Amino acid sequence: MAATKELTSGTSKLNPETLTVSVTTVVPMHEQDPKPKGMLSPDFLGKLERLALVSKRVQLGASKGERRSKRKGMGIEFADYRDYVQGDELRHVDWNLFARLDALYLRLFEDQEDLTLHLLIDASASMGFGTPSKLEFACTLAAAIGYIALVGYDRVTVEAFSGSQQRVLPPIRGKSSARKLFAFLESVEAGGPTRLERACHAHLANNRFAGMYILISDFFDQDGFDGCIRKLAGSRSDVHAVHVLAPEEINPDVSGDLKLIDSETGKAVEVSINRALLKRYHTDRELFCESIRKYCAARGIGYLMTGSDAPIEKITLEALRKGGLIR
Amino acid sequence: MGILESIGRFFTGHFLSPGYFWFFAVLPLVVLLYLLKLRRTEIVIASTMLWTRSLQDLTANAPFQRLRRNLLLFLQILILLLVIIALARPFMTHEGPTGNNLCLIIDRSASMKTVEGGTTRVELAKKEALDMVDTMAGSDKAMVVAFGAKTDVLSEFTDDKERLRKAIAGIKAVDTGTNLRDVMLIARSLAPDNRELPAAVTDLKLILLSDGKVSDLEELGVLGIGVDYVKIGHTSHNAGITVFNVRTPEEGQGPKQAFVLVHNESERALATTVTIYLDDRPLGSCEIKAEPGSDGEAVLELPEVQSGVLRAELDHPDALAADNVAWLVMRPRTRLRVLLVATDGSSGAYFLQRALSLDPRVDLARANPTNYSPMSRYDLTVFESWSPKQLPGGCLVFINTVPPESGVSSEGKIENPPVLAVDSGHILTRLLNPAAVRINEAMALTLPAGARTLVSTRGGPLIADISRPDQTIAVVAFDIAMSNWPLNLSFPLFVQNLVAWTPDPAPAGEASISTGQPLTIMPSPDVDHADVTLPDGTDRRVEMEPTRPVFFAETETAGVYRVQRGNETVLHAVNLLDKNESSITPAPLLKIGRGEVVGESGKVRQNVEYQRWLLLFALIVLALEWWIYSRRARI
Lengths: 327, 635
What we know:
The complex is a heterodimer of chains A (about 325) and B (about 625).
Chain A: H1 42-49, E1 64-83, H2 95-101, E2 105-113, E3 116-122, H3 134-151, E4 155-162, E5 165-172, H4 178-186, H5 196-206, E6 212-217, H6 226-233, E7 238-245, H7 247-250, E8 256-262, E9 268-273, H8 275-298, E10 302-307, H9 312-322
Parallel strand pairs in A: 3-4, 3-6, 6-7, 7-10
Antiparallel strand pairs in A: 1-2, 4-5, 8-9
Helix pairs in contact in A: 3-4, 5-6
Chain B: H1 2-14, H2 27-36, E1 41-45, H3 49-56, H4 62-69, H5 71-87, E2 91-95, E3 101-107, E4 115-116, E5 119-120, H6 121-134, E6 141-147, E7 151-158, H7 161-169, H8 181-190, E8 204-210, E9 226-231, E10 239-247, E11 256-264, E12 270-278, E13 281-290, E14 295-302, E15 308-314, E16 325-330, E17 336-342, H9 347-357, E18 362-367, E19 380-384, E20 395-399, E21 409-415, E22 421-422, E23 441-446, E24 452-457, E25 460-465, E26 473-476, H10 490-501, E27 513-514, E28 519-521, E29 529-533, E30 539-543, E31 550-552, E32 559-565, E33 568-575, H11 579-582, E34 589-592, E35 595-601, E36 605-609, H12 611-633
Parallel strand pairs in B: 3-6, 3-8, 8-9, 9-35, 17-18, 17-19, 19-20, 20-26, 27-33
Antiparallel strand pairs in B: 2-36, 4-5, 6-7, 10-11, 11-14, 12-13, 12-15, 15-16, 21-23, 22-24, 24-25, 25-26, 28-31, 29-30, 29-32, 32-33, 34-35
């Protein structure tokens, strides 16, 4: 399935104000829907521009930006003094202090650097299910958050992973790179098994910049969800987990004697749907979500569970703001 | 065993082919096939992780879950059950006949006069029959047959309900017994397997509305037609006269006696009286007692009664009044015609003539051997010292002569035979004491085998009874003129005994006939018709034939029939006197030929099969099952 991108800016020059992106994620054959979904309307983009990502940690950035950095540099705000060592620029010596104390001290100022936003998107086969598909929802949400980051002069890197496959969007910056972001997200296709821990491990190994990690997944990982969360939690970064479930998974509308086949493993489960089983399923689903939430909370990771049919504006403007991801 | 029997009875009572219930053994197979061959709809979902987790605690008893919760399996089992039950051909008992050609056979015998709850059994039977006619479908046909001692087809096969109602309404109970044979002959002639009849009625059903008191059931052969027996009535409260006659005491002595036998059908012991009337004048009453189900008898002496109408009435109000009264016509005794054959001037004949003419019952005639004709018929012929060549008819006495063709022979004479022994048990020598009789000479007779010596002397009998089965003959071995017997008291007694010994020419003077039997009116040359007055007072004119007797068959009512033939009036008593009819307890089942028909009180039960409805229902369930199956397969 080819993803489609549509720019209706009227000029060849990228204008985020008029950017309209239709993000149609990959859906399996049977879920195919020709209509573009998850459209980020100009209005919505305008609203996004007024938002900013909230990073609770002060971290080192890759380049100059608008966020406080751990690095002391050439900023405006005074930060500290330190002893002069040979080789320091004399410009930074506080001469007034030298006059009083007869010792050389350097004036240190706080530096402002950018933030690297890591959007980790689960593109396994299971994400291709749902109406709209979970992957479509994930990409649209990633587009919205990524756009906020780009507008805030933060670096954005995207990785869509499934099994041993990773598709990576190298770090981009600036509003003008939004097109790249959208194009990348539109091209993401679902397929392959879910290997969350392995994907996170690989991503952390390849990216030296800490920053903000946003993992969007359904967490249907045969190896469990805890591995990847543990790894991300250890990255000294702000981590947020967005748990996407399809409406059919939240409230399954099935009955009769069924043979349920796992889209990733191909394993079949024979069920005779009845009220008791459905009740059990609901209990287990809630327990599953709750266990992820608790696991995340214990490690200072933000958790948001949402259905893939939830309106993206509402999620972005309300749920994410409430969760402290944006302001 | 009792439970098994009742289960068996249930299956045979509700299903025509209960053998198909063995197919229930297939049920576990269906369950097994369902479990093994369950076709599940395959659905690819994102992940089975949650489902697997949910199933973990449910899969432990998954087979039972499937059984308990699965609607489709239940529907399949239901379909199989319905099909098996349909194969077993269940039927419901429907009240009232349907869809048949009905032959309504209504009993109108005397027992149907029994009063049940203010109305008679025959009225109840008519009501049932009318109900059946009312419930007949438009295409149904029926015929109406009423039977007692004789059978009448009151309506041929017709679908005209009005005609059928009219025929049924006209039925009246009579005082006769029951004869089903003619009914069955009619039914058999209508039966579909009767090849002689091209237009036989198919789908014929006989409906017998009766109390089951049918006397000739066992004589009926195999009947190839279905018979529904509708039992009418329930009471058994009845006592009825079953025998009423007048008898003479043994040996003709003593007054006549009226004998009444009463059958007590009710469940309580009977203690009542029987009153005998002569021409509506009470002669006397007699107590009678009978245990339930048994008979009681009463005997009443009728001292001076010679003629008239005797009526016996049971003073016991019960459900059936028709058997509480019986009649008997007593006719005056006729005179005996006696011929004395003797040579003219015989002394013995003189004594005999004098003695015989003293008896008022005797019409005496004389003949001598020259003018005697053996063709003339007399009740008693006395041959004195002469015998004809062959024996004439009637009662014969040979005195001092050997009867011909009788095996008696005479071998010489016995001088002065003494009277040695007298058989006082014989009617001829009853009360006789001839010890003082002196006889000069007697024949030495040799008697044939079987003869009875009444008075004996040495060397042979003096008086002997040599009667044969067809004729009564006595012989006296001596000349009464050569003895002093005529001067002895025993002589007139002997002559009187002789008259009494003579068989009565009209012994059935008190006889009666049963209802339904024809009255015989004897021919009379100068009478061309007879008028018969029935017990209810109506008259019937009967044309007579000069040479042959005429039979009057309209005798279905008990009572006294008066036959006026010219100047002569003859009374005939016609009585029910039928123990079978007096036993009014309705028979629960009828054994017709080799089969048994169970009677259902009041209603005709028609077995209506509902096999096709079950199959239709099974089809609907099958469609429902398929619909649910296809609906479930959709997500």
